[in-house]
Amino acid sequence: MTDTKILRKKISESGLKLQFIAEKLGISRYALSMKLDNRSEFKTSEVATLCELLGISCLEEKEEIFFKLKVDL
Fold first, then answer.
1. Residue 71 pLDDT > 60
2. Whether the Cβ atoms of residue 6 and residue 54 lie closer than 8 Å to each other
3. pLDDT band at residue 69 under the 50/70/90 scheme
4. How far apart are CA 30 and CA 28, in angstroms?
5. Over the stretch 14-44, which tens digit does the pLDDT of each residue have?
6. Alpha-carbon distance 40 to 56, whole Å?
7. What distance in Å separates the CA atoms of residue 31 and residue 12, rounded to the nearest whole number?
8. Alpha-carbon torsion angle 9, 7, 27, 39, nearest 10
9. Are 22 and 31 in contact (CB under 8 A)?
10. How far is the CA of 43 from the CAs of 13, 15, 34, 48, 73, in angstroms?
C-alpha cells in the first residue's frame, strides 16, 4: 500500500502539478487521484517514473512510500 501522505508531501515539495505527473505516467488526472487516494494501485512502471520525477533514489525511501504493509489513514 502506498503511503500517500508522504507521497503527496513529496509532490508538493517538488512543485510539479498533478496534471503534469499524470501525463508523464500516461494516465488521466482522475486515475492519478484514485491512486493517491489508495483506491487503485500504482504499477511498477509508474512507481519508477514517479521516483524519477520526484528525485527519490534511496531504496529505503521508495519502500517507505510505495511498499508499506499498513498505512495510517
1. no
2. no
3. confident
4. 5
5. 999 999 999 999 999 999 999 999 999 999 9
6. 21
7. 18
8. -120
9. yes
10. 23, 23, 13, 9, 21
Enter the C-alpha cell of residue 63: 519502500
Tell me: the pLDDT tens digits for 42-60?
999 999 999 999 999 999 9
Q: What is the largest CA-CA distance in the chain?
A: 29
Q: Which three cell numbers stand for residue 13?
A: 515539495
CA distance to 24, 53, 72, 73, per residue, from 46 (Å): 9, 10, 23, 22
| Amino acid identity, position 69 | L
> Does the pTM exceed 0.90?
no
With CA atoms as reference, report the closest residue to 9 among 64, 68, 48: 64
